[in-house]
User: What shape does this take?
Amino acid sequence: RLIAARTGPQGKVILSDINHSMIRTGRARLLDGGIAGNVGFIQANAEQLPFSDNSFDCITMGFGLRNVTDKQAALDSMYRVLKPGGRLLVLEFSRPAAALKPAYDFYSFKVMPGLGRLFARDAESYRYLAESIRMHPDQQTLLDMLESAGFEDCSYQNLSGGIVAVHRGYKF
Assistant: This one.
């Protein structure tokens, strides 16, 4: 929503997801928020983005990369469609600082599934969330993957003690 609001009438934002219902939900939220004119929607697999080479100034992905089967293929695809000078931003769960890990693991594997069972009658989805986070590459591994895809000047910033991290990379 913030990106769409800041691009102005000349800019274009493409909301993409492999899951059609996620696109429908995102579209509804943007329309309810009064944003629609400069936003397009497309169902696409991040591993094989259906866009021309050098098409985008910026690509953002929030809490989605951990659900991609072939993360390296997705990063390669994102690199391909970025214009020279373009930037990739990936916000994703990551590895918490060692001091936070015991409490974080307890919360993730005991509290979250219990709350899911109590309020959503679905402990399994919350268990999957915790497991998918643990399977996702740590900060340095994801940084290395960005560099393997061709991104330069790569960095990451831990948020919430490393529970979440923002990774950045540029195509020059």
About this structure: The beta strands are 13-17, 39-43, 56-62, 82-93, 152-159, 164-170. Residues 93 and 140 are 13 Å apart (CA to CA). The longest strand covers residues 82-93. The first helix runs from residue 2 to 6.
